[in-house]
Every structure is written in structure tokens, then in C-alpha cells.
Specification:
Strand content: 25-35%
Number of helices: 4
Number of strands: 5
Helix content: 25-40%
Largest sheet: 5 strands, mixed
Number of domains: 1
Length: 107
């Protein structure tokens, strides 16, 4: 997948409202999630990290510059076009664990 295809898939994810910002209360902790074709992926945009298998197998090896989930969060932040989902702090661990379990699926 070249950069043009990555950007195209990222724009599609933003258009389809698959970029979510979870805000946990009362701590105000934030977590970015992108809903992919095969699961939910946790994205840490400021660290340049994603839980998708594409990130682990292609981005880390240098085969690709980024995954489309990271590009989608970047674009959604720039345009302020993401869904905000508020949850209680006690739900944070459950959401993190659910996202990380999906890591094994390919995108």
C-alpha cells in the first residue's frame, strides 16, 4: 500500500465517522480508537503508535511510512471531525483490553 492508498483509506475512515475519541471522567484521560474492518485499534497519535498488525509488521520494519489508522486520527484531529464518547474511568481498562485483543487481526 503506497502513501496515496493510505491517505485514501484514512479519509474514508474519517468520512465514515470511524475515528473516536474516548474521554474518561473524572480523570479526563483520552484514548483514540479507529474502527477498522477487522476490529478496533488503539492509536497514540503523539507517539506515532497503533495496535494494528499493519503497524507491527510493515510500519516498524520501514516497509510503510504509517498505517491508515494513524493517518485517520491525524486528519480527524486537524478537521475536528471525530466522535467524542464519554465513559467513566472504571471502563478504561475494559476498553484498552478489548482494543489490544484485536491486535492479532490483519487489516
Amino acid at each position: 500500500m503506497n502513501l496515496h492508498e493510505i491517505v485514501s483509506k484514512a479519509l474514508e475512515a474519517v468520512r465514515e465517522k470511524r475515528v473516536k475519541l474516548y474521554v474518561f471522567r473524572p480523570s479526563n484521560r483520552k484514548l483514540w480508537i479507529v474502527v477498522g474492518r477487522h476490529g478496533y485499534y488503539m492509536v497514540l497519535p503523539d507517539s506515532g503508535y497503533c495496535t494494528c498488525s499493519d503497524f507491527f509488521f510493515r510500519v516498524i520494519s520501514g516497509e510503510k511510512p504509517t498505517c491508515y489508522h494513524l493517518a485517520a486520527v491525524k486528519k480527524a484531529r486537524e478537521e475536528k471531525t471525530y466522535s467524542i464518547i464519554e465513559k467513566e474511568d472504571r471502563q478504561y481498562r475494559k476498553i484498552i483490553n478489548g482494543s489490544l485483543k484485536e491486535r492479532g487481526s490483519s487489516e
